[in-house]
Amino acid sequence: MIVGRREEWTGRLLLVVLMAATLVPFVSLFTTALHPSGSYPSGLDWPSHPRWGNFAAAFRTAHMGALLKSSVLIVLGVVPISLLLATMAGFALGHLRMAGRRLVFLTFVLGLTLPFEGIITPLYYQVRDMGLLNTRWAIILPLIGLFMPFSVFWMRAHFVNMPEELSEGARIDGANVWQLFWRIHVPLAMPAMSSLAILLFLWTWNQFLLAIVLVDDPAKRTMAGALGAFQGQWGTDIPLLCAGSLLILAPTLAVFLVFQRRFVAALLQGSLKG
Amino acid sequence: MARPTLGTAVEPPGAPPRPVAAGSRRPARRRARTSRWVGWLFVAPALLVYAVFVLRPLVLTVEYSLYRWDGIGPSTWVGLDNYVKVFTDPDLVDTILNAVKLIVFFSAIPVLLGLVIASTIRRVAASRLALVARTVLFLPQVIPLVAAGIAWSWLLSSTGLVNQALSRVGLGGVTRAWLGDFSTALPAVGVIGAWVLLGLCTLLFLAGMSKIDPALYEAARIDGAGALREFFSITVASLRQEIAVSVTVTVIAALAAFDIVYISTQGGPGNATMVPGLEIYYLAFSERQVGVASALAVVLVVLVLGCVLPIQWLAKEDSP
Amino acid sequence: MSRRTRACWHRAALAAVALAGSLAACGGPGSGSPQAAGPSTSFAAPPTCGTSPVTLEAYFETGFPIAKALTTEFSKQYPNVAWHIREDQFAVITQNAPRVLADDPPDLMRLPQVSELVKDGLLQNLDPYASAFGWDKWPASQLQQLRLGPGGRPRGEGSLYAMGLNFSMTGVFYNKTLAARIGMTAPPTTLAELDAALAKAKDAGITPITQFNGGATGGLAFPLQDLMASYGPAGPINDWIFQKPGATIDTPSNIRAAQHLERWIKAGYFAGDINAVDYAKMMSRFIGGDGLFMFNGDWESGNLDKQMPGRVGFFLMPPAQQGGPSAAMSAPLTFGISARAKHADCAAFFLNWVATNTAARDIAVDVGGSHPMGPADGHMPAVKAGTVTASTLAAGARIADDNGSMDFIANATGAIYAKSWTPQLQKLDAGQQTPEGLLKSVQKDYESQVGS
Question: Which residues does residue C406 pair with via DSSP β-bridges, in sequence order?
């Protein structure tokens, strides 16, 4: 491909500028977090005596250990159950020729663009009447429901592409539908399921609205929801708030960096398929 | 967060009937009939959770919007009064207008800028720098929106980095508390959203561009087409699908904005950055006006649909 | 669209309509009646916390250590009582109050404005405790603001629905070092003298007034109300705050006060970015030496004595006329017990303890900086002369003599502060609202909120 030298360098320069613009807020959080607690440092200046202890202080005051545990529990509730339900539904809608599959699929598609604020009010009263208010299930169950349209859409898109011959062969061998599903299709769906799992993990971990409305105790919320409480409680202490924010970002960042290729692929595909 | 959106293929392509192995015709038909109904068993759990936690609240929102209720005592039927309030109360109308204005920042800027940037860095898209960039540019999508809000609130404060940089460049007179000033608060919130979404759009377009046949560009170059011509006729034209997706995702992010506004301005100063999502939260849970909150929620849902469906329809129309 | 899919749409639409119709026919939401917080049984003996282990749920305001200091001391004296405390900024507490009291009730909670909370039956009626513990025998003015008529209106008379952890006094704090720089040796005694001091400070390059006005809390309400009290009597202002029928905030003397505030804004006596400055930032600035005056309350006296020892003074807002009566916002630090609290008796016992126990009263003055509630002859710790705490306590006595204590205009209704005063004051600061328009707009909101 004929690539002009100048174009190549403009491209590189632009990339660097973009990356800098993306990273500046993180750097700013970091340098501010190192300032003495209670001060209002300006801009990006590096403190004369970096207070590394601020991170430990933030960890303690925000009870990050409990927050981490809470978020992990919530993710463990949302992701496996969603995967199972969505894969089963996707299988039925995409592969089995079930009656009325178009209507059911349409019902799920309806929910794809639904903003969570659209249903948060009755959801609050419903969760309260179910006695689940202030428990982790208050976040887990609605999230499973709210992510179902996308999850079903995603898995169905995978199953639609599965050739009929696969199932025919299994049926001839005497397999019933469940065995067909579990033994043959699920293993084949692993790539799609793992991408979906990554997306659901991300969206659950970063879920904010449901956490602050349905759960009062920060120790039972998602980490993002706890950050809201952290800001409410410590928002006046900027360095501590920045340190806390960085600690709360850290798990998703870490998971992202480890799985980056899958992440990026999943997010891009997710947007395209969706 | 990249919200899930409507796909371009709303219905499954009708699969032509497959040839059935001869000799197993009758059992196949019986098995086919069983699987038509067994499917319902597989779908039922998903459908149940969805119906209980999404569909039922959705219907209830519509119901609540027709009543006046404070969430504690009994409710009174008011018919469409709440909707009238939503469309005539200047504060509530402003929230809807603010959401629409945010579309410029959350949607137009990331998409347009993303297109330009992607097409400029397309040529170095395979380099190692670009691979690192892919990771870095994705970071805003990975972190919670509230973290982005906190970081940017700090940057945009009167002693923050933005003002510091402006002073260094000699624009000291322009500095102010961006999020506290009536005229700049909404654009400032928009900047935060643009930062969150720019990386996603850029990468989407880059991914799409990698599918474009380089020969097209070669041919255009040989024909003497300039960079601008190339951009519009080839790049943009081939990225129709990706453009539709990024516009959809970003428009939904703009209209349904909550996290960023909650953490950075709480809707202030005055009503300058109040958006429907946040107003619903305040109306329902602080001011105990569940009916009006629900009416606003219904209007929000309709607004989102009203923006997204035409985009999807436009994108589908010309697809090959 | 194929015919089949069109049929699908039709079927879906029909189903949706049928579902909606059936739900509507079922009657509206919330048909259950609220639990009425009627007067509970009277007590034979004053209730206590008992001896078995008890954990009290509390929801306090962040940044004000007095409540936590008191609970720690209480647990020392009564080891069977443990506390589970949740903290949030005051603006968040205000937002969350109705929801938290209804669905996740704490035993003890820092309260914002209580009128609507009482109307919805969310707060415990404290009359039985008042008679059991003898709160009725305290000076009546202490509890007046916490009494509400049936249905939450009017305030100032009726059953007791909340208690206070101290009652506060407000006025003007000043930085003694900066005052010396402009030659201010004694606090101003008239509004004109205050204006002169402000002008001198501005000329000397000192920020005349450090104030907050950002976020969900418009701090310009402090100087505004002080100016209102300078220009006119405190009585009508209190009537408006207490939701007495026919009360209005849009009066000629209040308009003059608002215009005076606008003159201060236009003269640049406030920093340019106060619409983005929250309470904590204001404190940080003042303590850091930025600003000559600060309109605030004595809940910060303890903090200021610690951070700026000997460098802070306090004076009551001077009247417009020489020798006129003084008035100041003085309100209890309101705490309440949820109507559905699990340990209401123990919480009430704590509140009584705060007002009567010697160690508690010491903490209240030392940490809280303000005057404890309780009997008129209650124990008062010795306060060092020259501290700002001494000044604020002395001012409290003066206000009592002049009968000039007012509640805050921000407390007139549950939403008047966040939805009315704050946006209008922010607009006034930005030059987008006039003083007359400000008062008219607030009065209009007040009438629609009170009428509902």
Answer: C329
Residue of B nearest to A201 (CA): B142
Which of C20, C28, C427 lies closest to B62 in CB terms? C20
- Are B158 and C273 in contact (CB < 8 Å)? yes
Q: Which domains does chain C have, with CATH numbers?
A: 54-167+332-395 (3.40.190.10), 170-330+404-451 (3.40.190.10)
| A264 shares contact with chain B (CB less than 8 Å) | yes
Whether B53 and B68 share a structural domain: yes
Is C151 buried (19+), middle (13-18) or exposed (0-12) by CB count in 10 A?
A: exposed
- pTM equals 0.84
**CATH 1.10.3720.10, chain A: domain bounds:** 64-273
C216 vs chain B: nearest CA distance in angstroms?
7
Query: Which of the 8 DSSP states describes residue C248?
Result: -
Digit-by-digit pLDDT tens for chain C (452 residues) are 455 555 555 655 655 565 555 555 556 676 555 454 444 567 778 888 888 999 999 999 877 888 889 999 999 999 999 999 888 878 788 888 888 888 888 999 999 888 888 888 889 999 999 999 988 888 877 888 889 988 777 888 889 999 988 888 889 999 999 999 999 989 999 999 999 999 999 999 999 999 998 877 889 999 999 999 999 888 899 999 988 888 999 999 999 999 999 999 999 999 888 887 888 788 888 988 899 999 998 888 888 888 888 899 999 999 988 888 888 888 888 999 999 999 999 999 999 999 999 999 998 888 888 888 888 778 888 888 888 888 888 888 788 777 788 889 988 887 788 888 988 999 999 888 999 999 999 999 999 888 74
A232 touches chain C (CB under 8 A): yes
Q: Would strands C163-167 and C147-148 be described as parallel, antiparallel, or unpaired?
A: unpaired
SS3 state of residue C297: strand
B44: left (phi over 0), alpha (psi -120 to 50) or beta: alpha
| Of A28, A60, A67, the residue nearest A239 (C-alpha) | A28
Residues whose CB falls within 8 Å of the CB of residue C275, separated by 6 or more in sequence, listed in order: B177, B180, B181, B182, B269, C213, C214, C426, C429, C430
B41 plus B92 within the same structural domain:
no
- B182 to chain C, any CB pair closer than 8 A? The answer is yes
Q: Coil, strand or helix: which one is C167?
A: strand
Reduce the DSSP state of residue A79 to 3 states and report it.
Answer: helix
**Phi/psi of residue B271, nearest 5 degrees:** -120, 15
* Residue of B72, B262, B312 best to disrupt the C interface, most CBs of C under 10 A: B72
- Which CATH architecture does the domain made up of A64-273 adopt? Orthogonal Bundle (1.10)
Give the integer Cα–Cα distance in Å for C304 and C313. 10
| CA distance, residue C103 to nearest chain B CA (Å) | 10
Contact status, residue A238 vs residue A83, Cβ threshold 8 Å: no
Q: Burial of C99 by CB count in 10 Å (0-12 exposed, 13-18 middle, 19+ buried)?
A: buried
Please say whether the beta carbons of A106 and C1 come within 8 A: no
Which strand (E) or helix (H) includes residue B75?
A: none
Q: Could you give the 3-state DSSP secondary structure of residue C91?
A: helix
- 3-state SS, residue C314: strand
Query: For residue C30, which residues of chain A lie inside 8 Å, CB to CB?
Result: 125
Q: Does B158 lie in the same domain as B63?
A: no
| Strand pairing report for C108-110 and C54-61 | parallel
